[in-house]
Write a structure and sequence with these properties.
With 64 residues, this protein is an all-alpha fold. The protein contains two helices and no strands. It is flat. 2% of the residues are buried.
Length: 64
């Protein structure tokens, strides 16, 4: 497996790139199934919910 330089990838695709790296690491045997599932879960959580929590925190701070 050949790792690419991080500076060649657009930053908006970081979660997708992280998923590809985790998948490659699992397929190559560097990580086990449980670690792979944990990584994928954290990436999906960040993709789906982080921005909502940050926005709510900012809104709550501005309203007080």
């Amino acid at each position: 497996m050949q790792w690419e330089n991080e500076s060649t990838r657009p930053s908006c695709l970081e979660p997708i790139n992280a998923m590809e790296i985790a998948y490659d690491a699992y397929c190559e045997g560097f990580i086990k199934w449980n670690a792979y599932q944990e990584v994928m879960g954290r990436i999906k959580t960040n993709m789906n919910g982080t921005w909502m929590f940050e926005k709510n925190t900012e809104d709550n701070n501005n309203g007080n």
